[in-house]
Design a protein that fits this description.
single chain, about 650 residues, alpha+beta, five-stranded mixed β-sheet, elongated, three-stranded antiparallel β-sheet
Length: about 650
């Protein structure tokens, strides 16, 4: 990645490596300052900076660089105090940060939540900050009715868990009426015990949106006033700092949810686009918001649920969907340059086994390879060179990629259900006017689904790495030069790119160990079985990131292999030529060795932004229409 970094009246160009891409924006700021002054920064007091993605988009300092910045973005780094840096030749003062008001666009589209029909795609959209949340009056009425049940219980002097008792091991300890509000505040403070890297702004928004969605169902007993406070904080992008480690996934994601609510109490740190990172109380005040004032049961209602597991899982599924679609396209390119057979994707073969994902992938392969709709001159020119049977990494693509499709759909159904389920304890059953303790907070469902997702998606890496081996190894590559480069020896070509793919594949094998197969008793033995779903969700995203990079290497190798066909005057099908062209728009062919990491990063970005899918999509649609097939391009879009 190349970034233009501006310092007051100076600027510099930074070429970031893969490690730096995974660092926080704040780390980028410090690294830029070091590079600008060519020696260690003397001032240790750099805690407050404002970093803008031009024009005027204030960045959250703990976001990862690759998540918020694109190639050739311009970033302005402004310190909020005069700080002096020394070098042998000069010293500079950076300007004092002048307070600016950056208001969010009030014309943002509103997505209405009711606790029943939030989709994964809409939840991911809510994470972007480009949408506001609305709640309609009939949903507010459900919230008020639920709260009335709690208030009536208190008036009747009933003893109810979490309302006038302690929590967990202290469930039998009765709390005096004059300490009930303090009980809820203490709960939030004590449970704000997370550590580690902070969740990105995207993930915090998704987590908050999910909690709002669950509270809107009317099973929590929260007051309309408190829910409105959470809603307003989301719509103003007042986002507390939330450490990613600390949840065991039962009773829900207590630590991360507590950190969110701690911020809304006006404690801890908070970030917004107009204030940057500051004390939570200050950020709320700057946006005209009052801190939460908790009533009985509300602390418990705000933090009892599986929303971190589910929010991260939703992003994992959304990325996995498009990753699987693009894996088919990249695999088709490899089949083409390795002179694979098209007959192995015949519809009758796959109909005889009838797994939905297998049938879908086989159909997609047919739409991309040589056919009466899209002719390939490469295929026609090499008919006599084709084997009777291809190796499994080519022949069994529908069977292997297909189960990934079905795995993603299974996990998608579980996560979608979880997103729209009441996960509180105790549950307020307003129609019966009672509260009942249960275990809907337990994260086993999303934890198991996300462990399964990681295992499934990783198989795309397993088979892709093996196909890369066939592309670069002249013993298997059907006449392609060793490591896909001329003048081997002086040039090493894709030799170590394949090693990178192998390393990431091996890393994934460890990450695929199911977190949910473990449990450790907590809370004095009361919570004696937990899901460990927080790590299930986090490592699913790590697996997906690795698979994106592995497929990026296969994409680059496939395009490089195609160069040797082009040199002989042979072109492939229209959809695969279109994919080749979009890659070549950003990455030139290899004539000799060059610095390869930036090209892998760019190719991975093409996958992450769905450019490979969007390029091939109209051609796939044309094939389906020509063959009078259903126009739905994937079961993902049902």
């Amino acid at each position: 990645m190349r970034l233009i970094v501006k310092f007051y009246n100076k600027q510099m160009l930074m070429n970031l490596n893969e490690h730096e891409m995974n660092e926080s924006v704040f780390s980028l700021c410090l690294e830029a300052l070091k590079r600008m002054h060519e020696e260690r920064i003397l001032t240790k007091n750099i805690t407050h900076v404002h970093i803008y993605k031009d024009p005027h988009i204030l960045l959250y300092p703990y976001d990862k660089v690759f998540e918020v910045l694109d190639n050739n973005d311009t970033v302005s780094i402004i310190l909020n105090e005069n700080v002096k840096y020394h070098s042998p030749n000069y010293s500079l003062h950076f300007n004092v940060f002048e307070d600016e008001t950056l208001e969010l666009d009030d014309t943002r589209e509103v997505l209405y939540l009711n606790g029943c029909d939030l989709s994964i795609t809409d939840l991911v959209r809510l994470g972007t900050g480009k949408y506001k949340i609305g709640i309609q009056e009939e949903t507010w009425n459900l919230v008020r009715e639920s709260r009335k049940v709690v208030d009536d219980m208190l008036d009747g002097k009933s003893c109810v868990y979490g309302i006038n008792t302690g929590f967990g091991k202290f469930a039998t300890t009765l709390i005096p009426p004059d300490q009930l509000e303090q009980l809820q505040v203490n709960l939030i403070r004590s449970h704000s015990s997370g550590i580690g890297d902070y969740l990105s702004t995207k993930h915090v928004r998704m987590l908050m949106a999910l909690r709002i969605n669950i509270l809107a169902k009317g099973f929590s007993g929260i007051s309309a006033e408190s829910l409105e406070t959470v809603l307003n904080a989301f719509n103003k992008s007042c986002l507390p700092l939330v450490p990613e480690q600390g949840t065991v996934g039962a009773s829900g994601d207590l630590a991360p949810l507590s950190h969110i609510m701690l911020g809304l109490l006006g404690e801890g740190k908070m970030w917004s686009p107009s204030t940057g990172l500051d004390d939570a109380k200050t950020v709320l005040e700057r946006h005209g918001l009052k801190p939460l004032s908790l009533k009985p049961k509300e602390g418990l209602a705000l933090i009892n649920g599986t929303q971190m597991i589910t929010a991260l899982g939703a992003e994992a599924i959304e990325r996995a969907k498009y990753l699987a679609l693009q894996a088919d396209i990249i695999a088709a390119l490899t089949v083409e340059v390795l002179k694979g057979n098209v007959a192995q994707f015949d519809p009758d073969i796959h109909a005889a086994r009838a797994h939905p994902g297998q049938i879908e992938v086989a159909c997609r392969m047919r739409s991309l390879l040589n056919s009466d709709v899209f002719e390939s001159k490469c295929y026609a020119a090499n008919k006599i060179d084709r084997k009777v049977q291809d190796p499994y990494t080519l022949r069994c693509i529908p069977q292997i990629h297909g189960v990934v499709i079905d795995t993603i759909n299974f996990s998608k159904n579980v996560i979608t259900t979880e997103m729209n389920s009441a996960t509180d304890n105790p549950m307020v059953l307003k129609d019966r006017h009672i509260l009942i303790s249960g275990g809907n907070f337990h994260g086993e469902y999303p934890a198991k689904a996300l462990d399964y997702l990681a295992i499934g998606v990783h198989e795309l890496a397993n088979i892709s790495e093996r196909r890369i081996e066939r592309l670069v190894n002249c013993a298997y590559s059907e006449g392609l030069p060793s490591f896909l480069v001329q003048e081997g020896g002086i040039n090493s070509g894709f030799m170590i790119a394949h090693c990178t793919a192998a390393a990431l594949t091996s890393e994934n094998k460890v990450l695929c160990h199911p977190s949910s197969s473990d449990t450790i008793s907590t809370s004095g033995g009361t919570e004696d079985h937990v899901s460990m779903g927080g790590w299930s969700a986090r490592k699913a995203l790590k697996v997906i990131n690795n698979v994106e990079n592995i497929l990026a290497i296969e994409l680059l190798a496939g395009c490089q292999a195609l160069e040797f066909f082009h040199a002989n005057g042979y072109t492939t099908t229209e959809p695969l030529e279109a994919v080749y062209n979009v890659v070549r728009k950003y990455i030139k062919p290899w004539q000799k060795d060059r610095y390869m990491s930036p090209d892998i990063e760019i190719a991975a970005n093409l996958i992450q932004t769905n450019k490979i899918w969007n390029t091939a999509k109209p051609f796939i649609m044309k094939y389906y229409q020509t063959k009078n097939m259903e126009s739905n391009l994937s079961s993902f879009f049902n």
